[in-house]
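hi support,

uploading two proteins for the ticket. first:
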Amino acid sequence: MASVNPIPPSAFAVPAVSSPNSARESVAVIGGGVVGLTVARAAALAGHPVRLLDRGVPGRPDGASWVAGGMLAPFSEGWPGEDELLALGAASLNRWSALAAELGEHVVTARGTLTVAFDSADVADLTTIAEWVGARGHAVEMLSRSALRALEPGVGGRAALSCPAELSVDNRAVLAALAESCKALGVQVTTTDVVDPAALPEDRVVVAAGWASSALLPGVSVRPVKGEILRLRRRAGSVPTPAHTVRATVNGRAVYLVPRADGLVVGATQYEHGDDTAVTVAGVRDLLADAERVLPGIADYEFAEAAAGLRPGSPDNLPIVGAVDDRTIVATGHGRNGMLLAPVTADAVVAELRGEPLPEAACCAPTRLSGGSGPSSVSRPSDLSRTGALS
């Protein structure tokens, strides 16, 4: 597992831009989560005067980005039929290498994901994913029990799907680094509740307010999807923290264990209960039981935190990114993949500001939902990603 070092000063160096800010339209970005911060940073790098508006400090502790697991896992979450989401996730994962280098490599906590199978049905599902993702040119591999044990001796399971290109990041370190980089680039921060984006004085407005975006843009359909996570600290004498992110399905429930310098993030439940962010007894119980099945020695870890956040869900499980009128751009609906998709979303927004939509994000255009599209019809097993990362 990568160690966490102090943030290097070079992480916040301001790259040169091709033209002064005065030559560009001013931009207001509503929302201080990972998507809003990444968009604000990218717009500032492109030469726009930028103001970030949020009801609290950017990356605030009650936001979904603060609670996130930090998995960047487009391949292990893939499933036949979800070609657009796979391609979008792969495009954003490719961008993460450069972003991590700019923010500081300390933000990366693990390289590679192992999705563990406990029975023959799990093996069949993972084989399906491996064949489908591999056929699209991505490096994935099924591992035997012995190969799994060689990589992660403390992890249970009879086989595993290995996705070596996937990463995991420390979400809170990412938020801090993005906020500092925005500050260095001259992004102004206003703490306020925005009621009417049309009343803002900037030339362009980007609504990146997560599940609350619907209240600001009534024609944009996103809903809150609750997820609970746990943070566990390794104690002296405890089993080692896995070097990889480890995922599994236990009793039909998806669970993941994401390395941190001091232990693990365990997640995540998924409920649709409106804006409820209370951590439940059942959620904690199930996450602990499932995590112990994956890493049997975890019971000796210290219980450090339980938290819940609200993912922004879209009708078809794809983000909603693009222009909604001549002045306003939306960037929301990322569901559990906000951390993964932040870089490609930022590039898509900057492309919209130029009037040149990003081809890679064409599947995210808000116009696709104008006909009232319902949820994706792709059928999954009970399943390896339906209750996946809160990010």
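and the second one:
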Amino acid sequence: MPRLSPRRPADLDGPERALYDAVTGGPRAQGPQLFPLVDADGGLRGPFEAMLRSPAVGGPLQALGVALRYGSSLAPRVREMAVLAVAAAWDSAFEREAHEAVGRHVGLTEDELAALRDGAVPALADPVERAALDLTRALLAGGRLADADYEALAGVLGERQVFELSTLVGYYATLALQMRLFATC
């Protein structure tokens, strides 16, 4: 049972409505609609509903998500594998539902999706994809890497992608934690 009462568009004040519009009219709403951002009554789904409680924090948080999904240097397959690894680690149904749809769209196979859903490592021939998933799993396991492991992963990914990937893992873990706390999914 959700712990937050649903907020409908007609009930939102100015800053809340601006955040709602940023989510429903921004990059997430452009292109193919791979998963619904709103429910049948127009309320925000998943982590976005909770963000309405504090637009001053929720706005920058959702903007970070936009930057990670649409402005980072991470390849779409890398990004979606990392999100799905977070979803598996946190048992986040909304992240799994939403990002399996996006993952299919960017070329993840059903076998790869099944492995990620189970918390396993899919067979990956691409060294960048493998390094990114190895880093993601290390971050999810506590974030400690031996210097040699860091150097090896950064050597494949580069410092920019290491930074972006670590931010992505933290962002989606934050969303999973909030959705668990507020029982929004």
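thanks. also noticed: The chain has two domains: 9-70, 76-182.
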